[in-house]
Amino acid sequence: MSLIKTAAQLEERLARADRNNRSLGFVPTMGYLHEGHLSLIRRARAENDLVVVSVFVNPTQFAPGEDFESYPRDIERDCGLAIQAGADLVFHPPAEEIYPSGSSTAVEVTGDMTRKLCGASRPTHFRGVTTVVSILLNIVRPDRVYFGQKDAQQAVLIKKMVRDLHIPVTVVVCPIMREADGLAMSSRNVFLTPQERKSAAVLNRALQKAEDALRSGLQGGGVSMLEAVIRDEIGTEKQANIDYFQILDGETLQEISRIVPGRKALAAVAVKFGKTRLIDNRMLSVE
Amino acid sequence: MSLIKTAAQLEERLARADRNNRSLGFVPTMGYLHEGHLSLIRRARAENDLVVVSVFVNPTQFAPGEDFESYPRDIERDCGLAIQAGADLVFHPPAEEIYPSGSSTAVEVTGDMTRKLCGASRPTHFRGVTTVVSILLNIVRPDRVYFGQKDAQQAVLIKKMVRDLHIPVTVVVCPIMREADGLAMSSRNVFLTPQERKSAAVLNRALQKAEDALRSGLQGGGVSMLEAVIRDEIGTEKQANIDYFQILDGETLQEISRIVPGRKALAAVAVKFGKTRLIDNRMLSVE
Protein backbone atom coordinates (compact mmCIF):
# COMPACT_ATOMS: atom_id res chain seq x y z
CA MET A 1 0.00 0.00 0.00
CA SER A 2 1.32 3.44 -0.96
CA LEU A 3 -0.85 5.39 1.51
CA ILE A 4 1.22 6.54 4.45
CA LYS A 5 -0.11 8.12 7.64
CA THR A 6 2.93 8.99 9.77
CA ALA A 7 6.22 10.80 9.30
CA ALA A 8 8.06 7.79 10.73
CA GLN A 9 6.50 5.43 8.15
CA LEU A 10 7.32 7.87 5.38
CA GLU A 11 10.93 8.12 6.56
CA GLU A 12 11.20 4.35 6.66
CA ARG A 13 9.72 3.93 3.16
CA LEU A 14 11.96 6.62 1.71
CA ALA A 15 15.03 5.09 3.37
CA ARG A 16 14.13 1.73 1.82
CA ALA A 17 13.82 3.49 -1.54
CA ASP A 18 17.41 4.76 -1.12
CA ARG A 19 16.29 8.39 -0.97
CA ASN A 20 19.76 9.72 -0.23
CA ASN A 21 21.02 8.68 -3.62
CA ARG A 22 17.93 9.59 -5.64
CA SER A 23 16.23 12.86 -6.44
CA LEU A 24 12.91 13.42 -4.68
CA GLY A 25 10.01 15.51 -5.95
CA PHE A 26 7.18 16.53 -3.62
CA VAL A 27 3.67 17.73 -4.43
CA PRO A 28 1.81 19.02 -1.36
CA THR A 29 -1.97 19.15 -1.86
CA MET A 30 -5.19 19.45 0.10
CA GLY A 31 -6.57 16.55 -1.93
CA TYR A 32 -9.69 16.16 -4.03
CA LEU A 33 -7.28 16.04 -6.91
CA HIS A 34 -8.07 17.51 -10.31
CA GLU A 35 -6.08 17.96 -13.52
CA GLY A 36 -4.19 20.87 -11.96
CA HIS A 37 -2.76 18.66 -9.21
CA LEU A 38 -2.15 15.83 -11.65
CA SER A 39 -0.12 18.13 -13.90
CA LEU A 40 2.13 18.86 -10.91
CA ILE A 41 2.53 15.16 -10.16
CA ARG A 42 3.37 14.38 -13.80
CA ARG A 43 5.93 17.18 -13.84
CA ALA A 44 7.46 15.86 -10.59
CA ARG A 45 7.52 12.36 -12.10
CA ALA A 46 9.37 13.63 -15.17
CA GLU A 47 11.98 15.50 -13.12
CA ASN A 48 12.70 13.17 -10.18
CA ASP A 49 13.54 9.57 -9.27
CA LEU A 50 10.99 9.48 -6.45
CA VAL A 51 7.68 11.33 -6.12
CA VAL A 52 5.77 11.95 -2.88
CA VAL A 53 2.30 13.51 -2.89
CA SER A 54 0.77 14.73 0.36
CA VAL A 55 -2.96 15.03 0.91
CA PHE A 56 -3.62 17.13 3.99
CA VAL A 57 -6.46 19.59 4.51
CA ASN A 58 -4.49 21.94 6.72
CA PRO A 59 -6.68 23.33 9.53
CA THR A 60 -4.38 26.28 10.32
CA GLN A 61 -4.92 27.94 6.94
CA PHE A 62 -8.68 28.15 7.41
CA ALA A 63 -10.19 30.84 9.63
CA PRO A 64 -13.24 30.07 11.80
CA GLY A 65 -16.30 30.20 9.54
CA GLU A 66 -14.35 29.28 6.40
CA ASP A 67 -14.91 25.97 4.63
CA PHE A 68 -12.49 23.67 6.52
CA GLU A 69 -15.26 21.27 7.58
CA SER A 70 -16.92 21.13 4.19
CA TYR A 71 -13.74 21.15 2.08
CA PRO A 72 -14.20 18.19 -0.31
CA ARG A 73 -12.33 15.00 0.60
CA ASP A 74 -11.97 11.62 -1.12
CA ILE A 75 -8.67 10.01 -0.16
CA GLU A 76 -9.27 6.69 -1.93
CA ARG A 77 -9.92 8.38 -5.24
CA ASP A 78 -6.99 10.78 -4.62
CA CYS A 79 -4.61 7.92 -3.89
CA GLY A 80 -5.56 6.13 -7.11
CA LEU A 81 -5.24 9.27 -9.21
CA ALA A 82 -1.90 10.25 -7.64
CA ILE A 83 -0.36 6.82 -8.25
CA GLN A 84 -1.71 6.78 -11.80
CA ALA A 85 -0.11 10.20 -12.44
CA GLY A 86 3.25 8.94 -11.18
CA ALA A 87 3.38 9.26 -7.39
CA ASP A 88 5.39 6.60 -5.55
CA LEU A 89 3.94 7.39 -2.15
CA VAL A 90 0.91 9.30 -0.88
CA PHE A 91 1.33 10.88 2.56
CA HIS A 92 -2.03 11.42 4.25
CA PRO A 93 -1.38 12.28 7.89
CA PRO A 94 -4.03 13.01 10.50
CA ALA A 95 -3.88 16.57 11.91
CA GLU A 96 -2.26 15.39 15.17
CA GLU A 97 0.67 13.95 13.22
CA ILE A 98 1.48 17.35 11.73
CA TYR A 99 0.51 19.38 14.80
CA PRO A 100 1.15 17.27 17.89
CA SER A 101 -0.55 18.38 21.09
CA GLY A 102 0.73 21.77 22.22
CA SER A 103 2.20 22.79 18.86
CA SER A 104 2.59 26.55 18.75
CA THR A 105 5.44 27.36 16.37
CA ALA A 106 4.61 29.45 13.31
CA VAL A 107 6.52 30.36 10.18
CA GLU A 108 5.45 33.65 8.73
CA VAL A 109 6.40 35.90 5.84
CA THR A 110 5.88 39.29 7.42
CA GLY A 111 5.25 42.60 5.70
CA ASP A 112 3.00 43.96 2.99
CA MET A 113 3.20 41.00 0.65
CA THR A 114 1.17 38.86 3.05
CA ARG A 115 -1.52 41.46 3.62
CA LYS A 116 -2.53 42.00 -0.01
CA LEU A 117 -4.98 40.11 -2.26
CA CYS A 118 -6.08 36.95 -0.40
CA GLY A 119 -4.14 38.12 2.68
CA ALA A 120 -6.51 41.08 3.04
CA SER A 121 -9.69 38.99 3.22
CA ARG A 122 -7.98 35.98 4.88
CA PRO A 123 -5.49 37.56 7.35
CA THR A 124 -4.33 34.31 9.01
CA HIS A 125 -4.39 32.18 5.86
CA PHE A 126 -0.79 32.50 4.66
CA ARG A 127 0.71 32.04 8.11
CA GLY A 128 -1.05 28.65 8.12
CA VAL A 129 0.22 27.90 4.62
CA THR A 130 3.87 28.79 5.27
CA THR A 131 3.81 26.91 8.57
CA VAL A 132 2.41 23.69 7.11
CA VAL A 133 4.66 23.84 4.05
CA SER A 134 7.70 24.27 6.35
CA ILE A 135 6.61 21.25 8.36
CA LEU A 136 5.96 19.11 5.28
CA LEU A 137 9.31 20.11 3.75
CA ASN A 138 11.05 19.10 6.99
CA ILE A 139 9.28 15.74 6.97
CA VAL A 140 9.69 14.92 3.25
CA ARG A 141 13.01 16.78 2.57
CA PRO A 142 12.55 16.87 -1.22
CA ASP A 143 14.93 18.24 -3.84
CA ARG A 144 12.03 19.92 -5.65
CA VAL A 145 8.59 20.98 -4.49
CA TYR A 146 5.72 21.73 -6.90
CA PHE A 147 3.00 24.36 -6.63
CA GLY A 148 0.36 25.61 -9.04
CA GLN A 149 0.28 29.14 -10.41
CA LYS A 150 -3.47 29.15 -9.64
CA ASP A 151 -2.55 30.13 -6.08
CA ALA A 152 -0.28 32.91 -7.31
CA GLN A 153 0.24 34.73 -4.01
CA GLN A 154 0.92 31.44 -2.26
CA ALA A 155 3.60 30.64 -4.86
CA VAL A 156 5.25 34.05 -4.38
CA LEU A 157 5.22 33.69 -0.58
CA ILE A 158 6.54 30.12 -0.61
CA LYS A 159 9.41 31.16 -2.89
CA LYS A 160 10.15 34.04 -0.53
CA MET A 161 10.03 31.83 2.55
CA VAL A 162 12.33 29.25 0.94
CA ARG A 163 14.80 31.99 0.01
CA ASP A 164 14.62 33.86 3.34
CA LEU A 165 14.99 30.72 5.47
CA HIS A 166 17.54 29.07 3.11
CA ILE A 167 15.38 25.96 2.86
CA PRO A 168 17.32 23.52 0.67
CA VAL A 169 14.66 22.89 -2.00
CA THR A 170 13.88 24.15 -5.50
CA VAL A 171 10.37 25.58 -5.84
CA VAL A 172 8.74 24.75 -9.19
CA VAL A 173 5.59 26.67 -10.11
CA CYS A 174 3.41 25.08 -12.82
CA PRO A 175 0.82 26.69 -15.12
CA ILE A 176 -2.89 26.95 -14.31
CA MET A 177 -5.02 24.13 -15.76
CA ARG A 178 -8.41 25.21 -17.10
CA GLU A 179 -11.78 23.70 -18.02
CA ALA A 180 -13.01 23.97 -21.64
CA ASP A 181 -14.69 27.33 -20.91
CA GLY A 182 -11.54 28.68 -19.26
CA LEU A 183 -12.52 28.25 -15.59
CA ALA A 184 -9.39 27.54 -13.57
CA MET A 185 -9.52 24.06 -12.07
CA SER A 186 -10.13 24.08 -8.31
CA SER A 187 -11.31 21.55 -5.76
CA ARG A 188 -13.90 24.14 -4.74
CA ASN A 189 -15.56 24.15 -8.19
CA VAL A 190 -17.69 21.19 -7.03
CA PHE A 191 -19.53 23.57 -4.68
CA LEU A 192 -20.92 25.64 -7.58
CA THR A 193 -24.54 25.28 -8.67
CA PRO A 194 -24.97 24.75 -12.43
CA GLN A 195 -25.88 28.45 -12.77
CA GLU A 196 -22.85 29.60 -10.72
CA ARG A 197 -20.61 27.22 -12.63
CA LYS A 198 -21.65 28.92 -15.84
CA SER A 199 -21.11 32.40 -14.39
CA ALA A 200 -17.69 31.46 -12.99
CA ALA A 201 -16.20 31.44 -16.48
CA VAL A 202 -16.23 35.24 -16.19
CA LEU A 203 -12.99 35.19 -14.13
CA ASN A 204 -10.87 33.91 -16.97
CA ARG A 205 -12.83 36.01 -19.48
CA ALA A 206 -12.11 39.19 -17.52
CA LEU A 207 -8.40 38.36 -17.24
CA GLN A 208 -8.31 37.54 -20.94
CA LYS A 209 -9.93 40.89 -21.80
CA ALA A 210 -7.31 42.71 -19.71
CA GLU A 211 -4.56 40.82 -21.50
CA ASP A 212 -6.12 41.57 -24.88
CA ALA A 213 -6.39 45.26 -23.97
CA LEU A 214 -2.74 45.29 -22.94
CA ARG A 215 -1.72 43.53 -26.18
CA SER A 216 -3.74 45.95 -28.28
CA GLY A 217 -1.61 48.67 -26.74
CA LEU A 218 -4.61 50.95 -26.29
CA GLN A 219 -4.13 51.20 -22.54
CA GLY A 220 -0.42 51.93 -22.80
CA GLY A 221 0.23 49.55 -19.89
CA GLY A 222 -1.71 51.74 -17.43
CA VAL A 223 -2.87 49.53 -14.59
CA SER A 224 -6.00 51.44 -13.57
CA MET A 225 -7.38 51.20 -17.11
CA LEU A 226 -6.71 47.45 -17.18
CA GLU A 227 -8.32 47.02 -13.79
CA ALA A 228 -11.40 48.83 -15.14
CA VAL A 229 -11.56 46.29 -17.97
CA ILE A 230 -11.55 43.48 -15.41
CA ARG A 231 -14.15 45.13 -13.18
CA ASP A 232 -16.49 45.86 -16.09
CA GLU A 233 -16.31 42.30 -17.39
CA ILE A 234 -16.93 40.74 -13.98
CA GLY A 235 -19.80 43.23 -13.58
CA THR A 236 -21.59 41.60 -16.50
CA GLU A 237 -22.26 38.56 -14.30
CA LYS A 238 -25.01 39.27 -11.76
CA GLN A 239 -23.99 36.28 -9.59
CA ALA A 240 -20.40 37.47 -9.25
CA ASN A 241 -19.56 39.14 -5.95
CA ILE A 242 -16.09 40.68 -6.20
CA ASP A 243 -13.70 40.16 -3.25
CA TYR A 244 -10.75 41.81 -5.02
CA PHE A 245 -9.16 42.41 -8.39
CA GLN A 246 -5.76 43.99 -8.63
CA ILE A 247 -2.68 44.21 -10.81
CA LEU A 248 0.57 44.12 -8.82
CA ASP A 249 4.25 43.53 -9.45
CA GLY A 250 4.55 39.80 -10.12
CA GLU A 251 7.47 39.24 -7.80
CA THR A 252 7.18 41.74 -4.95
CA LEU A 253 3.36 42.13 -5.04
CA GLN A 254 3.89 45.87 -4.71
CA GLU A 255 1.44 48.28 -6.29
CA ILE A 256 2.38 49.53 -9.74
CA SER A 257 0.84 52.19 -11.93
CA ARG A 258 1.98 50.75 -15.25
CA ILE A 259 3.29 47.52 -16.67
CA VAL A 260 6.84 48.04 -17.89
CA PRO A 261 9.08 45.92 -20.11
CA GLY A 262 11.20 43.39 -18.26
CA ARG A 263 8.91 43.01 -15.24
CA LYS A 264 5.95 40.69 -15.03
CA ALA A 265 2.73 41.92 -13.49
CA LEU A 266 0.23 39.73 -11.69
CA ALA A 267 -3.44 40.36 -12.47
CA ALA A 268 -5.32 38.58 -9.69
CA VAL A 269 -9.02 38.26 -8.96
CA ALA A 270 -11.14 36.70 -6.23
CA VAL A 271 -14.89 36.47 -6.68
CA LYS A 272 -17.65 34.86 -4.66
CA PHE A 273 -20.41 32.91 -6.37
CA GLY A 274 -22.97 32.22 -3.68
CA LYS A 275 -20.94 30.78 -0.81
CA THR A 276 -18.04 29.70 -2.98
CA ARG A 277 -15.00 31.94 -3.30
CA LEU A 278 -12.89 31.38 -6.41
CA ILE A 279 -9.55 32.89 -7.42
CA ASP A 280 -7.79 33.22 -10.75
CA ASN A 281 -4.87 35.19 -12.16
CA ARG A 282 -2.75 35.90 -15.18
CA MET A 283 0.82 37.08 -15.56
CA LEU A 284 0.96 40.14 -17.82
CA SER A 285 3.97 41.58 -19.56
CA VAL A 286 4.86 44.02 -22.34
CA GLU A 287 7.75 43.86 -24.77
CA MET B 1 41.63 27.51 5.74
CA SER B 2 38.67 26.33 7.78
CA LEU B 3 36.95 29.72 8.01
CA ILE B 4 33.96 29.84 5.69
CA LYS B 5 31.89 32.90 4.82
CA THR B 6 29.09 31.73 2.53
CA ALA B 7 26.47 28.99 2.56
CA ALA B 8 27.62 27.91 -0.93
CA GLN B 9 31.24 27.47 0.23
CA LEU B 10 30.04 25.53 3.27
CA GLU B 11 27.89 23.27 1.09
CA GLU B 12 30.81 22.64 -1.22
CA ARG B 13 33.20 21.85 1.66
CA LEU B 14 30.69 19.52 3.30
CA ALA B 15 30.03 17.76 -0.01
CA ARG B 16 33.76 17.22 -0.43
CA ALA B 17 33.83 15.80 3.09
CA ASP B 18 31.18 13.25 2.04
CA ARG B 19 28.60 14.69 4.44
CA ASN B 20 25.80 12.42 3.25
CA ASN B 21 27.55 9.37 4.57
CA ARG B 22 28.89 10.87 7.79
CA SER B 23 27.22 12.21 10.91
CA LEU B 24 27.38 15.97 11.32
CA GLY B 25 27.36 17.89 14.60
CA PHE B 26 26.70 21.62 14.66
CA VAL B 27 27.47 24.18 17.35
CA PRO B 28 25.89 27.59 16.63
CA THR B 29 27.52 30.41 18.62
CA MET B 30 27.77 34.19 18.70
CA GLY B 31 31.53 33.84 19.08
CA TYR B 32 33.96 35.17 21.67
CA LEU B 33 34.28 31.55 22.67
CA HIS B 34 34.77 30.45 26.26
CA GLU B 35 34.92 27.10 28.02
CA GLY B 36 31.14 26.79 27.74
CA HIS B 37 31.25 26.88 23.94
CA LEU B 38 34.33 24.67 23.86
CA SER B 39 32.55 22.03 25.94
CA LEU B 40 29.82 21.95 23.27
CA ILE B 41 32.38 21.60 20.49
CA ARG B 42 34.18 18.78 22.33
CA ARG B 43 30.88 16.99 22.88
CA ALA B 44 30.00 17.42 19.18
CA ARG B 45 33.47 16.09 18.27
CA ALA B 46 32.94 13.01 20.43
CA GLU B 47 29.52 12.25 18.93
CA ASN B 48 29.93 13.03 15.21
CA ASP B 49 32.17 12.42 12.20
CA LEU B 50 32.11 16.08 11.17
CA VAL B 51 31.78 19.20 13.33
CA VAL B 52 30.71 22.65 12.13
CA VAL B 53 30.84 25.67 14.44
CA SER B 54 29.12 28.89 13.41
CA VAL B 55 30.16 32.30 14.71
CA PHE B 56 27.44 34.82 13.96
CA VAL B 57 26.36 37.73 16.12
CA ASN B 58 22.72 37.65 15.05
CA PRO B 59 21.31 41.17 14.70
CA THR B 60 17.65 40.09 14.85
CA GLN B 61 17.89 38.82 18.43
CA PHE B 62 19.03 42.20 19.75
CA ALA B 63 16.51 45.00 20.28
CA PRO B 64 17.47 48.61 19.54
CA GLY B 65 19.53 49.87 22.47
CA GLU B 66 20.79 46.41 23.43
CA ASP B 67 24.45 45.46 23.07
CA PHE B 68 24.59 44.28 19.43
CA GLU B 69 27.23 46.83 18.45
CA SER B 70 29.40 46.29 21.49
CA TYR B 71 28.98 42.50 21.73
CA PRO B 72 32.56 41.19 21.96
CA ARG B 73 34.06 39.79 18.75
CA ASP B 74 37.38 38.10 17.95
CA ILE B 75 37.00 35.76 15.01
CA GLU B 76 40.67 34.85 14.66
CA ARG B 77 40.92 33.74 18.24
CA ASP B 78 37.51 31.97 17.95
CA CYS B 79 38.61 30.10 14.86
CA GLY B 80 41.77 28.84 16.54
CA LEU B 81 39.92 27.77 19.69
CA ALA B 82 37.15 26.06 17.74
CA ILE B 83 39.57 24.04 15.62
CA GLN B 84 41.60 23.13 18.69
CA ALA B 85 38.44 21.89 20.43
CA GLY B 86 37.61 19.69 17.44
CA ALA B 87 35.74 21.76 14.83
CA ASP B 88 36.34 20.82 11.20
CA LEU B 89 34.87 24.01 9.79
CA VAL B 90 34.01 27.43 11.19
CA PHE B 91 31.14 29.21 9.44
CA HIS B 92 31.36 32.98 9.91
CA PRO B 93 28.89 34.60 7.51
CA PRO B 94 28.29 38.31 7.13
CA ALA B 95 24.74 39.42 8.05
CA GLU B 96 23.71 39.78 4.38
CA GLU B 97 24.53 36.11 3.77
CA ILE B 98 22.03 35.01 6.43
CA TYR B 99 19.49 37.77 5.77
CA PRO B 100 19.69 38.74 2.09
CA SER B 101 18.15 42.05 1.11
CA GLY B 102 14.39 42.05 1.68
CA SER B 103 14.36 39.09 4.07
CA SER B 104 11.17 39.16 6.10
CA THR B 105 10.33 35.59 7.09
CA ALA B 106 10.20 34.80 10.81
CA VAL B 107 9.99 31.58 12.78
CA GLU B 108 8.31 32.04 16.11
CA VAL B 109 7.29 29.91 19.05
CA THR B 110 4.06 31.62 20.03
CA GLY B 111 2.31 31.58 23.37
CA ASP B 112 3.20 32.07 27.01
CA MET B 113 6.50 30.22 26.94
CA THR B 114 8.11 32.97 24.85
CA ARG B 115 6.81 35.81 27.01
CA LYS B 116 8.25 34.66 30.33
CA LEU B 117 11.70 35.19 31.88
CA CYS B 118 13.99 36.75 29.22
CA GLY B 119 11.00 37.03 26.87
CA ALA B 120 9.38 39.53 29.25
CA SER B 121 12.28 41.99 29.24
CA ARG B 122 13.38 41.15 25.66
CA PRO B 123 10.07 40.69 23.76
CA THR B 124 11.58 40.27 20.26
CA HIS B 125 14.65 38.30 21.35
CA PHE B 126 13.44 34.73 20.94
CA ARG B 127 11.79 35.38 17.59
CA GLY B 128 15.27 36.41 16.40
CA VAL B 129 16.82 33.32 17.98
CA THR B 130 14.35 30.81 16.52
CA THR B 131 14.56 32.48 13.09
CA VAL B 132 18.36 32.41 12.92
CA VAL B 133 18.58 28.87 14.28
CA SER B 134 16.06 27.74 11.62
CA ILE B 135 18.16 29.38 8.93
CA LEU B 136 21.43 27.93 10.22
CA LEU B 137 19.89 24.46 10.51
CA ASN B 138 18.69 24.72 6.89
CA ILE B 139 22.16 25.75 5.74
CA VAL B 140 24.17 23.23 7.79
CA ARG B 141 21.61 20.38 7.97
CA PRO B 142 23.28 18.63 10.91
CA ASP B 143 22.28 15.39 12.60
CA ARG B 144 22.82 16.92 16.02
CA VAL B 145 22.86 20.53 17.21
CA TYR B 146 24.39 21.61 20.52
CA PHE B 147 23.21 24.30 22.92
CA GLY B 148 24.24 25.26 26.44
CA GLN B 149 21.94 24.97 29.43
CA LYS B 150 23.11 28.49 30.42
CA ASP B 151 20.47 29.85 28.03
CA ALA B 152 17.80 27.64 29.55
CA GLN B 153 14.75 29.29 28.00
CA GLN B 154 16.44 29.31 24.61
CA ALA B 155 17.11 25.58 24.93
CA VAL B 156 13.46 24.89 25.83
CA LEU B 157 12.20 27.01 22.91
CA ILE B 158 14.61 25.48 20.39
CA LYS B 159 13.53 21.99 21.44
CA LYS B 160 9.91 23.04 21.06
CA MET B 161 10.51 24.61 17.64
CA VAL B 162 12.35 21.50 16.42
CA ARG B 163 9.51 19.29 17.61
CA ASP B 164 6.68 21.53 16.34
CA LEU B 165 8.22 22.04 12.88
CA HIS B 166 9.51 18.43 12.61
CA ILE B 167 13.04 19.70 11.94
CA PRO B 168 15.15 16.57 11.34
CA VAL B 169 17.82 17.18 14.00
CA THR B 170 18.56 16.00 17.54
CA VAL B 171 18.93 18.86 20.03
CA VAL B 172 21.63 18.21 22.62
CA VAL B 173 21.69 20.51 25.66
CA CYS B 174 24.98 20.57 27.60
CA PRO B 175 25.67 21.60 31.21
CA ILE B 176 26.60 25.11 32.30
CA MET B 177 30.34 25.71 32.63
CA ARG B 178 31.38 27.86 35.59
CA GLU B 179 34.35 29.90 36.78
CA ALA B 180 36.09 28.92 40.02
CA ASP B 181 33.73 31.11 42.08
CA GLY B 182 30.67 29.62 40.38
CA LEU B 183 29.93 32.42 37.89
CA ALA B 184 28.41 30.92 34.75
CA MET B 185 30.70 31.46 31.77
CA SER B 186 29.39 34.06 29.36
CA SER B 187 30.89 36.15 26.58
CA ARG B 188 29.39 39.16 28.36
CA ASN B 189 31.46 38.59 31.52
CA VAL B 190 34.26 40.64 29.90
CA PHE B 191 32.08 43.73 30.30
CA LEU B 192 32.13 43.48 34.11
CA THR B 193 34.30 45.81 36.18
CA PRO B 194 36.44 43.96 38.75
CA GLN B 195 33.95 44.95 41.45
CA GLU B 196 30.96 43.78 39.38
CA ARG B 197 32.78 40.58 38.51
CA LYS B 198 33.11 39.82 42.19
CA SER B 199 29.47 40.64 42.86
CA ALA B 200 28.30 38.52 39.94
CA ALA B 201 29.12 35.33 41.82
CA VAL B 202 25.92 35.97 43.74
CA LEU B 203 23.82 34.46 40.91
CA ASN B 204 25.18 30.98 41.37
CA ARG B 205 25.27 31.41 45.15
CA ALA B 206 21.57 32.32 45.22
CA LEU B 207 20.64 29.34 43.04
CA GLN B 208 22.80 27.09 45.20
CA LYS B 209 21.05 28.33 48.34
CA ALA B 210 17.67 27.58 46.78
CA GLU B 211 18.85 24.09 45.89
CA ASP B 212 20.21 23.54 49.38
CA ALA B 213 16.95 24.74 50.89
CA LEU B 214 15.03 22.32 48.67
CA ARG B 215 17.41 19.47 49.58
CA SER B 216 17.08 20.21 53.27
CA GLY B 217 13.37 19.66 52.83
CA LEU B 218 12.53 22.61 55.01
CA GLN B 219 10.61 24.36 52.24
CA GLY B 220 8.60 21.28 51.32
CA GLY B 221 9.09 22.10 47.65
CA GLY B 222 7.08 25.35 47.92
CA VAL B 223 8.19 27.64 45.12
CA SER B 224 7.47 31.01 46.74
CA MET B 225 9.68 30.10 49.74
CA LEU B 226 12.51 29.08 47.40
CA GLU B 227 12.12 32.26 45.39
CA ALA B 228 12.42 34.23 48.61
CA VAL B 229 15.73 32.47 49.31
CA ILE B 230 16.99 33.56 45.88
CA ARG B 231 15.77 37.14 46.27
CA ASP B 232 17.28 37.49 49.74
CA GLU B 233 20.66 36.19 48.61
CA ILE B 234 20.80 38.45 45.53
CA GLY B 235 19.73 41.30 47.79
CA THR B 236 22.99 40.93 49.73
CA GLU B 237 24.85 42.37 46.73
CA LYS B 238 24.34 46.13 46.42
CA GLN B 239 25.48 46.15 42.77
CA ALA B 240 22.93 43.54 41.71
CA ASN B 241 19.87 44.91 39.95
CA ILE B 242 17.32 42.11 39.58
CA ASP B 243 15.57 41.77 36.19
CA TYR B 244 13.75 38.55 37.15
CA PHE B 245 14.03 35.44 39.27
CA GLN B 246 11.46 32.72 38.93
CA ILE B 247 10.94 29.01 39.35
CA LEU B 248 8.88 27.44 36.54
CA ASP B 249 8.14 24.00 35.15
CA GLY B 250 11.35 22.93 33.42
CA GLU B 251 9.67 21.78 30.23
CA THR B 252 6.58 23.92 29.72
CA LEU B 253 7.83 27.04 31.58
CA GLN B 254 4.43 27.23 33.22
CA GLU B 255 4.10 28.65 36.69
CA ILE B 256 4.11 26.09 39.48
CA SER B 257 3.42 26.42 43.17
CA ARG B 258 5.52 23.46 44.28
CA ILE B 259 8.21 21.19 42.94
CA VAL B 260 6.85 17.67 42.66
CA PRO B 261 8.61 14.33 42.15
CA GLY B 262 9.06 13.35 38.50
CA ARG B 263 9.05 16.87 37.06
CA LYS B 264 12.06 19.13 36.86
CA ALA B 265 11.73 22.78 37.77
CA LEU B 266 13.80 25.58 36.28
CA ALA B 267 15.06 28.22 38.71
CA ALA B 268 16.15 31.11 36.48
CA VAL B 269 17.59 34.51 37.30
CA ALA B 270 18.61 37.59 35.33
CA VAL B 271 20.49 40.37 37.06
CA LYS B 272 22.09 43.56 35.83
CA PHE B 273 25.48 44.63 37.10
CA GLY B 274 25.99 48.16 35.81
CA LYS B 275 25.14 47.91 32.12
CA THR B 276 25.78 44.18 31.90
CA ARG B 277 22.85 41.80 32.15
CA LEU B 278 23.75 38.25 33.20
CA ILE B 279 21.59 35.16 33.41
CA ASP B 280 21.95 31.88 35.25
CA ASN B 281 19.75 28.95 36.17
CA ARG B 282 19.54 25.60 37.85
CA MET B 283 17.31 22.60 37.33
CA LEU B 284 15.67 21.58 40.59
CA SER B 285 14.01 18.30 41.43
CA VAL B 286 12.79 16.31 44.38
CA GLU B 287 12.72 12.54 44.86
List keywords for this structure.
Pantoate--beta-alanine Ligase, Chain: A,domain 2; 6-stranded parallel β-sheet; alpha/beta; 3-stranded antiparallel β-sheet; 21% strand; Rossmann fold; 287 residues; homodimer; 2 domains
> Largest chain-chain contact?
A-B, 30 and 30 residues
Strand content of chain A: 15-25%
Order of helices and strands of chain A, N to C? EHEHEHEHEHHEHEHHHEEE
Mean pLDDT of chain A: 95
Q: Name the CATH class of the largest domain in chain A.
A: Alpha Beta
Structure summarized in a few sentences:
2 copies of one chain form a homodimer. The first copy, chain A, is an alpha/beta fold.
Detailed description of the structure:
The structure is a homodimer. The first copy, chain A, has about 290 residues and is α/β, with parallel strands linked by helices. The first copy, chain A, has 2 domains: about 5-175, HUPs (Rossmann fold), CATH 3.40.50; about 185-280, Pantoate--beta-alanine Ligase, Chain: A,domain 2 (2-Layer Sandwich). Chain A contains 10 helices and 10 strands. Chain A has helices spanning about 5-15, 35-45, 75-85, 95-100, 120, 125-140, 150-165, 195-200, 200-215, 225-235, and strands at about 5, 25-30, 50-55, 90, 105-110, 145-150, 170-175, 240-250, 265-275, 275-285. Chain A has a 6-stranded parallel sheet with strand order 1-4-3-2-6-7, with helices on both faces. In chain A, helix 6 (about 125-140) packs across helix 7 (about 150-165). The longest helix of chain A is centred in the middle third of the chain and has 16 residues, at about 125-140. Chain A is globular. The termini of chain A are far apart. The model of chain A has no long low-confidence stretch (mean pLDDT about 95). Strand 5 of chain A pairs antiparallel with strand 5 of chain B, so a sheet runs across the interface.
